[in-house]
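Hi everyone, sorry if this is the wrong subforum. Our group has a chain we'd like a structural model of before ordering constructs, and none of us has done structure prediction before. Sequence below.
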Amino acid sequence: MILYLVAQRTHELGVRKALGAGSGAILWLVLRQGVLMGLAGIAIGLAGALATRQFLTKLLHGVSGTDPWTLGGASLLLLIVVATA
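Answer:
Right subforum, don't worry. Here is the predicted structure as C-alpha cells:
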C-alpha cells in the first residue's frame, strides 16, 4: 500500500525535489504518511481484537485475548514493517 501511494505521488515528489526540497524532507513526508496509516491500522486492529476477545481466548492457548505484551508486540512489529516499507 505504501509503495502504491508513493508511486501515485511520484510527480508531486519530483516537483518538490525540483523546487528545492531535500531528500530528508521528502523521506519524512512519505514516512509520516505511512506511519499514520500504520497507526490507524493498529487502532482498528486493537478495537477488533478487543471486540472478539472471547473468540480469541479460545484460539490462544496460554495467552489471554487481551494480553498487553502480545498486542503491544504485534503493534510494534506492524510499525516497524510500515516504517521499513
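For your construct planning: The chain has a mean pLDDT of 85. The chain has one domain: 2-84.
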